[in-house]
Amino acid sequence: MKRILKFAGVAVVAVGTLASLAVCQESRVYREGSNWVQEITGDLGGARNLRVKLEAGSVRVEGGSQSSVSYVIHRRAYTSSEQKARREFETYKVETYLRGDTAFIVGHSRGGNNRQCAGDFVIRVPRNMELTKVETDGGSVSAIGITGRAEIESGGGSIRVDDIGGAVTVETGGGTIDVGNVGSDVNLQTGGGNIKIVSAKGKIIAESGAGSVVLLSGLQGAVLQTGAGSIRVEKCAGKVRATTGGGSVDLGEIGAGAEIESGAGSIRLTSAKGPVQVQTGGGSIQLDGAPSVRAETAAGGIIAKILSSSGERSDSVLETVAGDITVYLSDNLPVSIRAAIELANGHNIRSEFADIHVLSEAGSWPGPRTVTAEGQLNGGGPVLKVRTSSGNINFRRVGH
């Protein structure tokens, strides 16, 4: 008898354990205006990871103080009767379950092509979730207030993430990507939408097929690329590599070097503490402060300010086919100057430094002539080569 009671006790414990893992879910259908709405609510219990995979539907994930994963799903049917609405709701199936320490929410259409009732998914999770992974073939996604990683993919919807402690990976076929504060690395890709990043503590990779890319604050390096849009960076502590097929590039304060390339747009840089390389197929270039510069444009003027630096210094090159070049130099900068206008034809080299000597080589009048300049400032140093085929060259002191 004691053995029978003992095994009975074990059975009760086992049943109780299974019951605690059961999913609590409720569903109701109600009328809203001329439409019908199905509301599904449920609780998946405690979990460390969330996995959402939908054929269609928008998703919002919110981290908070709760200890379990709960959800509210709203689906709409544009039918005249409740019976027709219920039949329509049945064409898109939603499954929710807990497997190990991962909560799953999966939605797919029965028959493979009816996604009208995909709906809106609002999922509330514990803030300390380790991984939140969301995939939807078509729909917007947002994830806010999670200390772990976030991986999000949409076939074409917009994506927003904010207050994420771990690394963020986002991919959308064509929607916009809006990133708030992220405590680690960021990897973003959209087929054509705009990208905006407020702040990221890790490395940044952001790529758009045609939209603009904006970074307000980065604490490490950033690689930014767009097929046709503009690129703007307010502040980045690491090296920045910015590439656009035809838009403008505007960089603010860069704590290391910068590599900038545009197919045809203008380029501007406020300051950089490392070497700067710039190339554009046909726009103006303005570089307001860097220890060394390599800049080239096919058609446009160049303004560059080269400052003295205690770090490693290297040669600089400024070159344009057609346009004026103005160079601002620090008084204490050791540099060797070599400058030339290949087809002067009325253009000239002007300098505020007595140690820069200008030479004019006359051609057969009234044809063009070559104007060159050479000099060593503060005993000479890395070479600064300045060349234009047709335009003026000006050497000025910083602050003038």
Summarize the structure.
Helix content is 7%, strand content 55%. It is mostly beta strands and 400 residues long.
Model description:
The structure is a single chain. By secondary structure, this protein is mainly beta. Among the domains are: 23-129, no CATH class; 270-400, no CATH class. 7% of the residues lie in helices and 55% in strands. The chain has an 18-stranded mixed sheet. The chain has an 18-stranded mixed sheet, with no helix packed on it. A hairpin with a 2-residue loop joins strand 1 and strand 2. The longest helix has 20 residues, at 2-21.
Number of strands: 36
Strand content: over 45%
Decide which structural class fits the backbone: mainly beta
Task: Tell me the quaternary state.
Answer: single chain
Q: Largest beta sheet, briefly? A: 18 strands, mixed
Helical content (DSSP H or I, runs of 4+): under 10%
The overall average pLDDT, rounded, is: 89
Distance between the termini: 103 Å
CA radius of gyration: 31 Å
Key structural traits:
18-stranded mixed beta sheet; disordered N terminus; mainly beta; single chain
Task: Spell out the blueprint of helices and strands.
Elements: H1 2-21, E1 24-32, E2 35-43, E3 49-54, E4 58-64, E5 70-77, H2 82-89, E6 92-99, E7 102-109, E8 120-126, E9 131-136, E10 141-146, E11 149-154, E12 159-164, E13 168-172, E14 177-182, E15 186-190, E16 195-200, E17 204-208, E18 213-215, E19 222-226, E20 231-236, E21 240-244, E22 249-254, E23 258-262, E24 267-272, E25 276-280, E26 285-290, E27 293-297, E28 302-306, E29 316-322, E30 325-329, E31 335-341, E32 349-351, E33 356-361, E34 370-377, E35 383-390, E36 393-397
